[in-house]
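[job 0412] stage=complex_fold ligand=zinc ion status=START
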Amino acid sequence: MKSLHHFLVSLTFSAIAFVQGSPRIAVLCMLVGWLVDADHEIDHFIYTRRFVLNPLKLGEALSRQWHGTLYIPLHGWEFLYLILIASSVYNFSFLIALSYGCHLVMDILGNGIKIFEMSVFVRWSRGWKRQFDTDSWF
Ligand SMILES: [Zn+2]
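[job 0412] stage=complex_fold status=DONE, emitting C-alpha cells
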C-alpha cells in the first residue's frame, strides 16, 4: 500500500480525535497508522546500507523484491491486540487501534501479504522469509 494512502486514512482518524479534543490521541493515530512504516527503513537498510528518508515513500522500499525476506517488526496483529488491551485498561480512544488496524488491513489487501504473515511471531518463526503464493490469503 502506498504511503499516501496510509497517510490519508490515518489523517482521518487523527482529525476525528482532534475534533474530539484529544490532540495526543491525534498524534498517536498518525504514528501508528502512517509512520509505523518506518520499519521498512530497517528492512531496506539491511540490504542496501541506505535509507530512503522520505516520509511519503515509507513502506515502498521492500526488500522482498530482492531477497524474499520481509523485516517489518512493527507490523503485526500482536501490536493491535496490545493496543486494544491498553485502550481498554487505560480507557483511551479506540481510534488508535482503528488507525493501526486499518494500516494492517490495507497492507494485506494492497501488498498481497497474507493474513498470517501479518504476525511478527509467524514471520520470525519462518526466519523472516516471505511466502509468495498469492492464491491464498492465509
Ligand atoms: Zn505498512
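The helical segments are 3-19, 23-33, 39-48, 64-67, 77-89, 95-111, 120-125.
[job 0412] exit 0
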